[in-house]
Amino acid sequence: MRRKAFTVERNRAAEKIDVPFLLIAIVLCGLGLTTLYSGSIGYAERIFGDPLHFVKRQCVNLAVGVVACAFLSMINLEKVRVALPKIVIATLVLMVLPFFPGIGITLNGASRWIHLGFTTFQPSELVKGVIVIFLANLFAKKHDRLDEPNVSVYPAAFMSALFVAIVYLQNDFSTSIFILAVVLVMFFFAGVGVSWFVRLFLVMLPLVAIMVLSKAYRVERVLSFLHPESDPLGAGYQVNAALQALSEGGFWGRGLGNGIRKISSIPEVQSDFIFAVWGEEMGFLGVLAYFALIVSFSLRGFWLSLRAPDRFRCLLGLGCTFVILFQSLLNCGVVIRLFPATGIALPFFSSGGSSLLITLSLCGLIINVSRRAAPQEGDIQNV
User: Fold this and answer.
1) How far is CA 380 from the centre of its chain?
2) Which domain holds residue 219?
3) Which of the chain's termini has less CB crowding within 10 Å, N or C?
Protein backbone atom coordinates (compact mmCIF):
# COMPACT_ATOMS: atom_id res chain seq x y z
CA MET A 1 0.00 0.00 0.00
CA ARG A 2 2.78 2.42 0.94
CA ARG A 3 4.67 1.56 -2.26
CA LYS A 4 1.57 2.21 -4.36
CA ALA A 5 0.92 5.56 -2.68
CA PHE A 6 4.50 6.61 -3.31
CA THR A 7 4.18 5.76 -7.01
CA VAL A 8 0.95 7.75 -7.40
CA GLU A 9 2.47 10.76 -5.64
CA ARG A 10 5.55 10.57 -7.85
CA ASN A 11 3.43 10.38 -11.02
CA ARG A 12 1.42 13.42 -9.97
CA ALA A 13 4.60 15.37 -9.30
CA ALA A 14 5.91 14.49 -12.73
CA GLU A 15 2.70 15.80 -14.35
CA LYS A 16 3.08 19.29 -12.87
CA ILE A 17 3.76 22.23 -15.18
CA ASP A 18 7.19 23.81 -14.80
CA VAL A 19 6.33 27.11 -13.10
CA PRO A 20 9.63 28.99 -13.80
CA PHE A 21 9.33 28.35 -17.54
CA LEU A 22 5.67 29.40 -17.56
CA LEU A 23 6.41 32.59 -15.62
CA ILE A 24 9.20 33.62 -18.00
CA ALA A 25 6.88 33.07 -20.97
CA ILE A 26 4.18 35.20 -19.30
CA VAL A 27 6.67 38.00 -18.62
CA LEU A 28 7.83 37.94 -22.24
CA CYS A 29 4.23 38.15 -23.46
CA GLY A 30 3.53 41.08 -21.13
CA LEU A 31 6.65 42.98 -22.15
CA GLY A 32 5.94 42.28 -25.80
CA LEU A 33 2.40 43.64 -25.61
CA THR A 34 3.58 46.72 -23.67
CA THR A 35 6.37 47.43 -26.18
CA LEU A 36 3.98 46.98 -29.10
CA TYR A 37 1.60 49.48 -27.52
CA SER A 38 4.37 52.01 -27.07
CA GLY A 39 5.85 51.47 -30.51
CA SER A 40 2.70 51.36 -32.62
CA ILE A 41 0.38 54.05 -31.30
CA GLY A 42 1.76 56.83 -33.54
CA TYR A 43 1.75 54.77 -36.73
CA ALA A 44 -1.67 53.28 -35.95
CA GLU A 45 -3.12 56.76 -35.34
CA ARG A 46 -1.82 58.07 -38.67
CA ILE A 47 -2.82 55.09 -40.81
CA PHE A 48 -5.95 53.71 -39.12
CA GLY A 49 -7.13 56.63 -36.98
CA ASP A 50 -6.99 54.34 -33.93
CA PRO A 51 -3.85 54.38 -31.74
CA LEU A 52 -4.81 50.98 -30.32
CA HIS A 53 -5.32 49.27 -33.69
CA PHE A 54 -2.31 46.93 -33.44
CA VAL A 55 -2.71 46.39 -29.71
CA LYS A 56 -6.34 45.29 -30.08
CA ARG A 57 -5.41 42.83 -32.80
CA GLN A 58 -2.50 41.53 -30.76
CA CYS A 59 -4.73 40.98 -27.73
CA VAL A 60 -7.02 38.81 -29.86
CA ASN A 61 -3.98 36.97 -31.24
CA LEU A 62 -2.65 36.53 -27.72
CA ALA A 63 -5.95 35.07 -26.52
CA VAL A 64 -5.99 32.56 -29.39
CA GLY A 65 -2.34 31.74 -28.76
CA VAL A 66 -2.96 31.13 -25.06
CA VAL A 67 -5.77 28.69 -25.91
CA ALA A 68 -3.46 26.88 -28.36
CA CYS A 69 -0.70 26.83 -25.74
CA ALA A 70 -3.02 25.37 -23.10
CA PHE A 71 -4.36 22.74 -25.51
CA LEU A 72 -0.91 21.62 -26.68
CA SER A 73 0.40 21.54 -23.11
CA MET A 74 -2.20 18.92 -22.21
CA ILE A 75 -2.55 16.89 -25.41
CA ASN A 76 -1.32 13.30 -25.48
CA LEU A 77 1.87 13.47 -27.53
CA GLU A 78 1.56 9.82 -28.51
CA LYS A 79 -1.70 10.66 -30.28
CA VAL A 80 0.12 13.49 -32.05
CA ARG A 81 2.69 10.99 -33.29
CA VAL A 82 -0.06 8.70 -34.59
CA ALA A 83 -1.77 11.61 -36.38
CA LEU A 84 1.50 13.03 -37.71
CA PRO A 85 1.05 11.84 -41.35
CA LYS A 86 -2.29 13.68 -41.48
CA ILE A 87 -0.74 16.75 -39.86
CA VAL A 88 2.07 16.81 -42.43
CA ILE A 89 -0.35 16.42 -45.35
CA ALA A 90 -2.62 19.17 -43.98
CA THR A 91 0.38 21.46 -43.61
CA LEU A 92 1.47 20.79 -47.19
CA VAL A 93 -2.05 21.61 -48.40
CA LEU A 94 -2.01 24.87 -46.45
CA MET A 95 1.42 25.66 -47.91
CA VAL A 96 0.16 25.52 -51.51
CA LEU A 97 -3.05 27.51 -50.88
CA PRO A 98 -1.30 30.92 -51.13
CA PHE A 99 -0.63 30.16 -54.82
CA PHE A 100 -4.39 30.00 -55.62
CA PRO A 101 -6.09 33.28 -56.64
CA GLY A 102 -8.89 34.26 -54.31
CA ILE A 103 -7.38 32.31 -51.43
CA GLY A 104 -3.79 33.47 -51.34
CA ILE A 105 -2.70 37.03 -50.71
CA THR A 106 0.25 38.44 -52.64
CA LEU A 107 2.03 41.42 -51.13
CA ASN A 108 5.25 42.97 -52.43
CA GLY A 109 5.70 40.03 -54.78
CA ALA A 110 5.42 37.43 -52.01
CA SER A 111 2.60 34.86 -51.82
CA ARG A 112 2.85 33.92 -48.15
CA TRP A 113 -0.63 34.38 -46.71
CA ILE A 114 -4.06 32.85 -47.04
CA HIS A 115 -7.28 34.75 -46.47
CA LEU A 116 -9.57 33.27 -43.82
CA GLY A 117 -12.35 35.85 -44.15
CA PHE A 118 -11.91 37.50 -40.77
CA THR A 119 -8.12 37.38 -40.72
CA THR A 120 -5.05 36.09 -42.56
CA PHE A 121 -2.65 33.28 -41.79
CA GLN A 122 0.93 32.60 -42.86
CA PRO A 123 1.36 28.82 -43.33
CA SER A 124 5.15 29.03 -43.38
CA GLU A 125 4.99 29.88 -39.66
CA LEU A 126 3.23 26.57 -39.07
CA VAL A 127 6.08 24.73 -40.80
CA LYS A 128 8.47 25.83 -38.03
CA GLY A 129 6.59 23.67 -35.56
CA VAL A 130 5.52 20.82 -37.84
CA ILE A 131 9.05 20.18 -39.13
CA VAL A 132 10.32 19.91 -35.54
CA ILE A 133 7.60 17.39 -34.63
CA PHE A 134 8.21 15.41 -37.82
CA LEU A 135 11.98 15.19 -37.36
CA ALA A 136 11.70 14.49 -33.62
CA ASN A 137 9.36 11.58 -34.34
CA LEU A 138 11.43 10.19 -37.22
CA PHE A 139 14.77 10.37 -35.40
CA ALA A 140 13.24 8.97 -32.21
CA LYS A 141 12.03 5.91 -34.09
CA LYS A 142 15.18 5.51 -36.20
CA HIS A 143 17.81 6.56 -33.65
CA ASP A 144 19.50 3.17 -33.81
CA ARG A 145 19.62 3.24 -37.61
CA LEU A 146 21.29 6.58 -38.29
CA ASP A 147 24.03 4.72 -40.12
CA GLU A 148 21.41 3.57 -42.64
CA PRO A 149 20.69 6.76 -44.63
CA ASN A 150 17.88 5.20 -46.68
CA VAL A 151 15.96 4.62 -43.45
CA SER A 152 16.74 7.75 -41.47
CA VAL A 153 18.68 10.59 -43.10
CA TYR A 154 17.22 10.52 -46.61
CA PRO A 155 13.53 10.57 -45.57
CA ALA A 156 14.25 13.42 -43.14
CA ALA A 157 16.19 15.36 -45.78
CA PHE A 158 13.54 14.80 -48.46
CA MET A 159 10.61 16.05 -46.37
CA SER A 160 12.66 18.99 -45.07
CA ALA A 161 13.71 19.94 -48.61
CA LEU A 162 10.08 19.78 -49.74
CA PHE A 163 8.97 22.25 -47.06
CA VAL A 164 11.93 24.54 -47.70
CA ALA A 165 11.28 24.52 -51.46
CA ILE A 166 7.61 25.45 -51.09
CA VAL A 167 8.43 28.29 -48.70
CA TYR A 168 11.09 29.54 -51.12
CA LEU A 169 8.62 29.44 -54.02
CA GLN A 170 6.37 31.72 -51.95
CA ASN A 171 9.21 34.25 -52.33
CA ASP A 172 9.99 33.93 -48.62
CA PHE A 173 13.74 33.45 -48.76
CA SER A 174 14.38 34.37 -45.11
CA THR A 175 11.93 31.84 -43.70
CA SER A 176 13.16 29.10 -46.02
CA ILE A 177 16.73 29.63 -44.80
CA PHE A 178 15.46 29.78 -41.21
CA ILE A 179 13.68 26.43 -41.58
CA LEU A 180 16.78 24.96 -43.19
CA ALA A 181 18.86 26.04 -40.18
CA VAL A 182 16.30 24.46 -37.81
CA VAL A 183 16.51 21.21 -39.80
CA LEU A 184 20.30 21.14 -39.54
CA VAL A 185 20.14 21.69 -35.78
CA MET A 186 17.58 18.89 -35.42
CA PHE A 187 19.98 16.62 -37.33
CA PHE A 188 22.67 17.63 -34.83
CA PHE A 189 20.42 17.01 -31.80
CA ALA A 190 19.56 13.57 -33.20
CA GLY A 191 23.24 12.61 -33.47
CA VAL A 192 23.59 12.46 -37.26
CA GLY A 193 27.25 12.03 -38.23
CA VAL A 194 29.46 15.03 -38.99
CA SER A 195 30.15 13.75 -42.51
CA TRP A 196 26.53 14.43 -43.43
CA PHE A 197 26.86 18.07 -42.39
CA VAL A 198 29.89 18.43 -44.65
CA ARG A 199 27.94 16.98 -47.57
CA LEU A 200 24.92 19.17 -46.87
CA PHE A 201 27.12 22.25 -46.64
CA LEU A 202 28.73 21.50 -49.99
CA VAL A 203 25.30 21.15 -51.57
CA MET A 204 23.72 24.11 -49.78
CA LEU A 205 26.41 26.71 -50.40
CA PRO A 206 25.92 27.04 -54.17
CA LEU A 207 22.13 26.68 -53.81
CA VAL A 208 21.92 29.54 -51.30
CA ALA A 209 24.13 31.68 -53.53
CA ILE A 210 21.80 31.04 -56.48
CA MET A 211 18.76 31.81 -54.33
CA VAL A 212 20.25 35.15 -53.26
CA LEU A 213 21.35 36.16 -56.75
CA SER A 214 18.01 35.23 -58.33
CA LYS A 215 16.27 38.33 -56.94
CA ALA A 216 17.54 41.90 -57.20
CA TYR A 217 16.13 42.95 -53.80
CA ARG A 218 18.04 40.17 -52.06
CA VAL A 219 21.28 41.35 -53.64
CA GLU A 220 20.44 44.91 -52.52
CA ARG A 221 19.92 43.70 -48.94
CA VAL A 222 23.27 41.94 -48.90
CA LEU A 223 25.05 44.96 -50.41
CA SER A 224 23.38 47.37 -47.97
CA PHE A 225 24.46 45.07 -45.12
CA LEU A 226 28.07 45.03 -46.34
CA HIS A 227 28.11 48.72 -47.27
CA PRO A 228 25.34 50.51 -45.32
CA GLU A 229 26.66 53.92 -46.34
CA SER A 230 26.09 53.20 -50.05
CA ASP A 231 22.29 53.64 -49.88
CA PRO A 232 21.41 55.28 -46.54
CA LEU A 233 17.98 56.46 -47.74
CA GLY A 234 17.08 53.24 -49.57
CA ALA A 235 17.87 49.64 -48.72
CA GLY A 236 19.87 50.62 -45.63
CA TYR A 237 17.43 53.17 -44.25
CA GLN A 238 15.43 50.94 -41.92
CA VAL A 239 18.47 49.32 -40.28
CA ASN A 240 20.28 52.65 -39.94
CA ALA A 241 17.21 54.20 -38.30
CA ALA A 242 16.97 51.27 -35.88
CA LEU A 243 20.64 51.62 -34.96
CA GLN A 244 20.12 55.32 -34.36
CA ALA A 245 17.21 54.56 -32.04
CA LEU A 246 19.30 52.08 -30.06
CA SER A 247 22.20 54.53 -29.71
CA GLU A 248 19.91 57.33 -28.54
CA GLY A 249 18.52 55.07 -25.85
CA GLY A 250 21.84 55.29 -24.03
CA PHE A 251 22.41 53.41 -20.81
CA TRP A 252 19.12 54.12 -19.04
CA GLY A 253 16.81 54.68 -22.01
CA ARG A 254 14.31 57.45 -22.67
CA GLY A 255 11.66 55.72 -20.59
CA LEU A 256 8.71 53.57 -21.58
CA GLY A 257 6.50 55.47 -24.04
CA ASN A 258 9.03 58.27 -24.53
CA GLY A 259 10.77 56.96 -27.65
CA ILE A 260 11.14 59.42 -30.52
CA ARG A 261 12.42 57.38 -33.46
CA LYS A 262 9.37 55.11 -33.48
CA ILE A 263 7.11 57.99 -34.47
CA SER A 264 8.34 58.46 -38.03
CA SER A 265 11.92 57.28 -38.51
CA ILE A 266 11.51 53.47 -38.55
CA PRO A 267 9.10 52.07 -41.16
CA GLU A 268 6.87 49.19 -39.98
CA VAL A 269 8.37 49.54 -36.51
CA GLN A 270 5.56 47.45 -34.99
CA SER A 271 6.71 44.29 -36.75
CA ASP A 272 10.29 43.29 -37.59
CA PHE A 273 12.01 46.24 -35.86
CA ILE A 274 10.06 46.37 -32.60
CA PHE A 275 13.30 45.62 -30.72
CA ALA A 276 14.54 49.10 -31.68
CA VAL A 277 11.64 50.58 -29.69
CA TRP A 278 12.56 48.49 -26.66
CA GLY A 279 16.22 49.51 -26.94
CA GLU A 280 15.51 53.22 -27.29
CA GLU A 281 13.04 53.39 -24.42
CA MET A 282 14.70 50.95 -22.00
CA GLY A 283 18.33 51.60 -22.90
CA PHE A 284 21.32 49.31 -22.51
CA LEU A 285 19.99 47.96 -19.22
CA GLY A 286 16.72 47.03 -20.90
CA VAL A 287 18.55 45.26 -23.71
CA LEU A 288 20.51 43.26 -21.14
CA ALA A 289 17.29 42.45 -19.29
CA TYR A 290 15.70 41.18 -22.51
CA PHE A 291 18.64 38.91 -23.30
CA ALA A 292 18.66 37.67 -19.71
CA LEU A 293 14.99 36.71 -20.11
CA ILE A 294 15.35 34.97 -23.47
CA VAL A 295 18.48 33.11 -22.33
CA SER A 296 16.73 32.03 -19.11
CA PHE A 297 13.73 30.93 -21.16
CA SER A 298 15.95 28.90 -23.47
CA LEU A 299 18.14 27.34 -20.79
CA ARG A 300 15.04 26.27 -18.89
CA GLY A 301 13.52 24.81 -22.04
CA PHE A 302 16.71 22.91 -22.90
CA TRP A 303 17.04 21.64 -19.34
CA LEU A 304 13.46 20.38 -19.27
CA SER A 305 13.94 18.69 -22.64
CA LEU A 306 17.10 16.89 -21.57
CA ARG A 307 15.21 15.49 -18.56
CA ALA A 308 12.44 14.04 -20.74
CA PRO A 309 11.73 10.33 -20.25
CA ASP A 310 12.05 9.41 -23.93
CA ARG A 311 13.91 10.46 -27.05
CA PHE A 312 10.89 11.90 -28.88
CA ARG A 313 10.02 14.33 -26.09
CA CYS A 314 13.65 15.28 -25.69
CA LEU A 315 14.09 16.12 -29.38
CA LEU A 316 10.71 17.85 -29.51
CA GLY A 317 11.51 20.11 -26.56
CA LEU A 318 15.00 20.89 -27.82
CA GLY A 319 13.69 21.76 -31.27
CA CYS A 320 10.84 23.97 -30.05
CA THR A 321 13.13 25.84 -27.69
CA PHE A 322 15.74 26.33 -30.40
CA VAL A 323 13.18 27.76 -32.84
CA ILE A 324 12.18 30.51 -30.39
CA LEU A 325 15.78 31.22 -29.31
CA PHE A 326 17.17 31.29 -32.85
CA GLN A 327 14.36 33.50 -34.14
CA SER A 328 14.84 35.92 -31.24
CA LEU A 329 18.60 36.19 -31.75
CA LEU A 330 18.21 36.48 -35.52
CA ASN A 331 15.73 39.35 -35.25
CA CYS A 332 17.91 41.21 -32.73
CA GLY A 333 20.95 40.54 -34.91
CA VAL A 334 19.24 42.23 -37.85
CA VAL A 335 18.34 45.29 -35.76
CA ILE A 336 21.95 45.75 -34.60
CA ARG A 337 23.23 44.93 -38.13
CA LEU A 338 24.91 41.62 -37.38
CA PHE A 339 22.85 40.02 -40.19
CA PRO A 340 21.19 41.30 -43.37
CA ALA A 341 17.51 42.24 -43.09
CA THR A 342 15.42 39.08 -43.01
CA GLY A 343 11.79 39.88 -42.24
CA ILE A 344 11.84 37.41 -39.33
CA ALA A 345 9.56 38.52 -36.48
CA LEU A 346 10.65 38.90 -32.85
CA PRO A 347 8.83 36.22 -30.79
CA PHE A 348 6.38 37.57 -28.17
CA PHE A 349 6.96 41.17 -29.36
CA SER A 350 6.28 41.67 -33.07
CA SER A 351 2.77 42.39 -34.30
CA GLY A 352 1.36 39.45 -36.23
CA GLY A 353 -1.09 36.70 -35.39
CA SER A 354 0.66 33.82 -37.18
CA SER A 355 3.99 34.43 -35.46
CA LEU A 356 2.51 34.82 -31.97
CA LEU A 357 0.22 31.80 -32.42
CA ILE A 358 3.11 29.52 -33.41
CA THR A 359 5.39 30.92 -30.69
CA LEU A 360 2.81 30.16 -27.99
CA SER A 361 2.06 26.78 -29.56
CA LEU A 362 5.75 25.89 -29.29
CA CYS A 363 5.65 27.02 -25.66
CA GLY A 364 2.70 24.68 -25.14
CA LEU A 365 4.67 21.75 -26.51
CA ILE A 366 7.63 22.59 -24.24
CA ILE A 367 5.28 22.76 -21.24
CA ASN A 368 3.89 19.38 -22.30
CA VAL A 369 7.42 18.00 -22.24
CA SER A 370 7.99 19.59 -18.82
CA ARG A 371 4.96 17.76 -17.40
CA ARG A 372 6.82 14.51 -17.96
CA ALA A 373 10.33 15.84 -17.34
CA ALA A 374 10.99 13.60 -14.35
CA PRO A 375 11.36 9.92 -15.34
CA GLN A 376 8.50 7.80 -14.04
CA GLU A 377 8.32 4.18 -13.04
CA GLY A 378 7.99 2.06 -16.15
CA ASP A 379 9.53 4.68 -18.46
CA ILE A 380 12.65 3.85 -20.42
CA GLN A 381 15.25 6.57 -20.18
CA ASN A 382 16.46 6.70 -23.76
CA VAL A 383 17.92 10.13 -24.37
Assistant:
1) 31
2) 18-370
3) N
